[in-house]
Amino acid sequence: MSNIEEIFEKYISSRIFKDREKLLPDYVPRELPHRDNQIRRLATILAPALGGSRPSNVFIYGLTGTGKTAVTKYVLRKLYEKAKKKIEFTYVNCRQNDTSYRVLAELARSIGVRVPFTGLATSEVMKRFLDGLERKARILIVVLDEIDHLVKKHGDDVLYFLTRINEQLSRSRVTIIGITNDLKFMEFLDARVKSSLGEEELVFPPYTATELEDILRKRAEEALHSDVLHGGVIPTVAAIAARQNGDCRLALDLLLKAADIAERMGSPHITLDHVKLAQKEIERNLTIDVIKTMPLHVKLVLAAIYLLEDENYRMVTTGAIYNKYTDITRSLGVEPVTQRRVSDIINELDMLGLINAKVVSMGRYGRTKVISLSASKGSIREGLREDIFLANIL
DNA sequence: AATCCACAGGAAGTGCTGGGCG
DNA sequence: CGCCCAGCACTTCCTGTGGATT
Asked: Where on strand C do bases come within 7 A of a protein Cβ?
């Protein structure tokens, strides 16, 4: 048997997986355990759409992996099945589409209006969206997921437009469902947008360890063969995820990775060791992936921080980083960016969770930021090394 | 109590890319 | 063709500030 056939054969005859897809992040199960309240509330709020009137706007808040997106998609799917034709819905992820233009373009596209991905004025896209909508005579439910990303970067222009859009429509109606994991986000909003978007509010509490266990058990039943899980695995995975704000997506991902590892190692069971390996792999992949896609100077600044930390520099401040960074650019023969820019890059790295930056005042000796690495040194090193250009300086 | 360091971080603008539209 | 648009990475210029030291 050839090598490749062996690989495929092994997969088909998997002793671990019954249906691997059931553990993938975008799979929405038939039942969403422990979210009955939220499902009922959202269904109640949206139900008027079936009678042809516009449902209230909804603002949904909950930490990552608490089922916000899954519940929303679940309820909307059911609603759509019931209503047919009269109702339409659109889902836009504002982390992927984090500018006013892109969000509007997505919305326009979803109702069948052709818009180029660049070139037009934003107001022109608004106009086309409005016209397209009016022609269709529908109730459109717009889901803006991770809405905080959009507002923090580009203000609430789009939201303002969307909350007032009904005043300009006579045959169609728009309802907005805003989803965020940042509660403070509401403070950024214009008062009118705030009151309009918050017509109804829905809170998703984190899952408890017991609830996570229950969810994992149900999902494992669908995805894995029986008896492949060693005792302890599910409680451990649940406990790890519970510590991470009850993040269900993390729990499922951890179980999937552990199963993958067990499979790869040819083990007939998933053990706690596989879970541990999976945990490391997740962290590692996450940091390597973000580093890979970073622009050059961001990588160089990260490299500077890495090197300072590596030589146990007493206190890693913005100034120290900038010096190290200019050293690096000089040795590579690259023009350095300004300190102002580096200051922003440090904030970006902080937001990505790769470093920890804290503003501190050292009295007479000024005010600065103290920085430390927060991701594992090894993963950062690996990530930076992916860039051939940087390999030598590490 | 006043000073003053070492930056923080806001505002506005530049130059470039990759596209409109008429 | 010429002029318009948005987005990005970055610059220039700038005002603000916590608190140890003078």
From this structure: 4-14, 16-21
